[in-house]
Design brief:
It is a multi-pass membrane protein. The chain is built from 8 helices and no strands. The chain is mainly α.
């Protein structure tokens, strides 16, 4: 296999391992939020922020830890036939089926970018162009110039009414990391087919 592909696999694996091992501690943050929610409902006045914050933390835990889970092979598989196959047969099947995952993640990433642009007040049809222009405005004019490009920021319709763009940005990052990991898994499967241990 070319060195650049091997370097890509190593770089993506180490990056997603680092992010995933940090993200796995979000479960303790989630438990703390839910514990405080129970305590406040029992002994004090219930607070509005706990349920939605718990949902946001769970999304971050799931999407940022997902690539690490795929890397470890801890994702759910239908193992009825797969478990009895040889490593080479598994690699052929995985190399084929990961293409469906990459397509799905590409569609999901495009939708996440569009939704994030909407949450920042962009209502047009070119969300990637909006982010390009936002980046150019930030680099050339600073934060003030970028802030002028933002429209009405989307908020949750609940009583707490948090801004939604932070969790949507987290979703975009998580889906992008999963896309990179899926591509690394494809290259890894090609290597296994060719007899290269990765």
């Amino acid at each position: 296999m070319p060195r650049i592909i091997l370097a890509y696999i190593r770089a993506i694996d180490s990056m997603n391992r680092f992010i995933g091992r940090i993200a796995m501690y979000l479960i303790f943050v989630l438990a703390g939020i839910l514990l405080w929610s129970s305590i406040s409902k029992t002994f004090f006045t219930p607070v509005h922020w706990t349920l939605e914050t718990a949902q946001f933390v769970m999304v971050a835990y799931y999407v940022l830890g997902g690539p690490y889970s795929v890397q470890l092979g801890a994702n759910v598989r239908m193992d009825l036939f797969y478990g009895n196959w040889s490593l080479r047969t598994k690699a052929w099947v995985d190399a084929f089926t990961v293409m469906f995952l990459i397509f799905y993640l590409g569609v999901l990433f495009t939708g996440a970018i569009s939704s994030t642009a909407y949450s920042l007040g962009y209502f047009g049809t070119e969300p990637f162009g909006f982010f390009r222009d936002l980046l150019v405005a930030f680099v050339t004019g600073g934060p003030g110039a970028a802030a002028e490009m933002l429209g009405f920021l989307e908020r949750s319709p609940t009583a707490w009414r948090p801004y939604l763009w932070p969790i949507k940005v987290t979703l975009c990052i998580g889906v992008f990391l999963m896309l990179l990991q899926a591509l690394a898994e494809f290259f890894r499967d090609i290597g296994r087919i060719r007899g290269v241990a990765l």
